Amino acid sequence: MSDERAGDAVRKAAAVRLEGVRKSYGDVVAVDGVDLEIRAGEFFTLLGPSGSGKTTTLRLIAGFERPDEGRIELGGADVGDRPPYARDVNTVFQDYALFPHMSIADNVAYGLRVRGIRKAERRGRVEDVLRRMRLEGLGGRKPSQLSGGQRQRVALARALVNRPEVLLLDEPLGALDLKLRQEMQLFLKSLQQDLGITFVYVTHDQDEALTMSDRLAVFNSGRIEQIGSPAKVYESPANAFVAGFVGVSNVVERGGRRFAVRPEKIHMTEAGAAAQTGSHASTAAGSSRSARRPRCTKARRTRSWRGSSASRTWSSAAAGASPSVPRRST
Ligand code: ADP
Ligand code: MG
Fold first, then answer.
1. What's the DSSP call for residue 102?
2. Which of 76, 98, 223, 229 has the most crowded CB, counting CB atoms within 10 A?
3. Whose CA is nearest to atom 12 of ligand 1?
4. Whose CA is nearest to atom 15 of ligand 1?
5. Which residues are within 8 A (CB) of 115 and not within 5 positions of it... i.e. 6 or more apart?
6. What pLDDT, on the 0 to 100 scale, is given for residue 327?
7. Quick one: average pLDDT of 22-27?
8. How far apart are the CA of 172 and the centre of ligand 2, in A?
């Protein structure tokens, strides 16, 4: 390979690349031919309902599972034959998986000790990461002496202390209550931006995925239905599954066509008043064709997916209710 082409390869190497990856357990096809490219420094989310293959995909990347077929690359290198400890990734599990008998500091230092890092350096790195995780002064406690949110941050500290290129997070906020979960979403996002580490984040919570991700992949039955930015996936769902799973949408039928219309894009008008816009979008919710959502310039500008999805509902009984459906731009 010429120097120039080698340079190109380095520049273009994705943090994580999956090609034709397949994994079955007996009759169950958990991952059914997944192609995926995650860029270095990206906050990338695997979003999908329970059982759609998200955890299996993450475990394949980590090396806890071997694919039946396909190729897995990290930083451009084929890691198919490497065990988990020889991959530059760390995983944060939903149940934290802390050692209950060890202190917080020893839990966090564990990976460094296994790798033979000297005690003085271990201590420095553990202190540094505990401070970053806002766990200063808690190193001497046992996991049972911490709150759920603190335990969660210990699990993060334990992964981050190894300074991995890629951090894999499997529903890391699933056990927290709503308020703490929202705080942790902000914390995780700013942490990821500070550290510049690639995050591969698994969740079934579409709001979480839309809020936090640079890009996301929507999983369904072991396959990826769509990959894109939150705005793209929300505004232009690739098909009826994505339209139904991401965001709240009302299906409206007009002239034999079905439209997926988001509640916040519906304008209520007085009975008899002319609707602002009423032209048809050539969209068919419920079919496998593109289920592009009708656009609303204002909503797009304000990134309106946050917290607004259930703010209005439309019913055909409402006098003069009129879905505002600008013409689809093709
Ligand atoms: P998700 O994380 O999206 O909920 P999983 O990847 O855990 O989905 O599971 C995908 C499918 O594979 C499910 O049907 C699940 O029951 C099955 N599965 C996952 N792990 C195993 C296993 N170790 N043995 C048998 N079936 C499994
Ligand atoms: Mg899972």
1. S
2. 98
3. 30
4. 51
5. 162
6. 35
7. 97
8. 11
Which ligand 1 atom minimizes the distance to the CA of 219?
A: 3
> Residue 50 Cα, ligand 1 centroid: separation in angstroms?
9
Mean pLDDT of the chain: 81
Distance CA 233, CA 159 (A): 30
CA pair distance 306, 162, nearest whole angstrom: 34
Atom of ligand 1 lying closest to residue 56 CA: 6
The pLDDT of residue 293 is: 53
Which residue shows structure tokens 């890391």? 172
- Rounded alpha-carbon distances, angstroms, from residue 42 to 75, 90, 205, 213: 13, 16, 19, 8
Pocket around ligand 1: residues whose beta carbon is below 6 Å from it? 25, 28, 30, 48, 50-56
pLDDT digits (tens, 9 = 90+) for 61-90: 999 999 999 999 999 999 999 999 899 999
Tell me which architecture the domain covering 13-227 has in CATH: 3-Layer(aba) Sandwich (3.40)
Does the pTM exceed 0.70? Answer: yes
Q: Quick one: average pLDDT of 91-108?
A: 91
Q: What mean pLDDT comes out for the span 229-256? A: 86
Beta strands in 164-206 (DSSP E): 166-170, 198-203
pLDDT of residue 277: 53
Q: In the 8-state DSSP scheme, what is residue 97?
A: -
In sequence order, what are the beta bridge partners of 76? none
